[in-house]
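Morning F.,

Quick status update on the modeling queue. The single chain you submitted on Monday has been processed. Sequence for confirmation:
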Amino acid sequence: MAALGTDAAIAEGFADPVTASQEHFRHLLDALSRPGRIVELGAGLPAAPAPLSRGSYALLLSLLDYETPLWLAEAGEAAASLRFHCGCPVTECTGDAVFAVAPGGAAPALEEFAQGTPDYPDRSTTLLLEVEALGEGGQELVLRGPGIEESAVLRVGGLDAGLVGQLRANHRSFPQGVDIVLVAGSRIAGLPRTTEVEIR
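Structure tokens below.
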């Protein structure tokens, strides 16, 4: 991970933090409860600090606080901005992160993140994977599991093909494992650990 320097500029946060956080939290719940459904976070998202997309920045502003360690594949200006607005600790250890952000084409192995325990499966990482596109291009993923009627198809651009095998292993480890949110600009799609993933 890049150095967590303190000289980076601070990006603006939400104009109305309470309302915006509630709205984007509902969007996230919608995406995770209906895997493969593309959810639009809407217009008016604040400009994101490098290297984050607007969607990832909005979700993190909504989710982070002083009790939620964050891991960033590349800190850039994002670490300073999120510490300022959310008070969150930024960790260099993937296994300590409650939330994490990485490029979809170059993410660490999923097993490096917190998996939870059989008694406390919620003590795991939620990973935001920034991809090039949702609903077009790239790979066609076939999804099955809770929240899906029979199966769903999701096209994802910019996702490492090797990650699909890891997603299968992640599903098999349920109730442990990580939950994944794919982010492309202001669009998101959920891949919780309950979802079985194949490439068509």
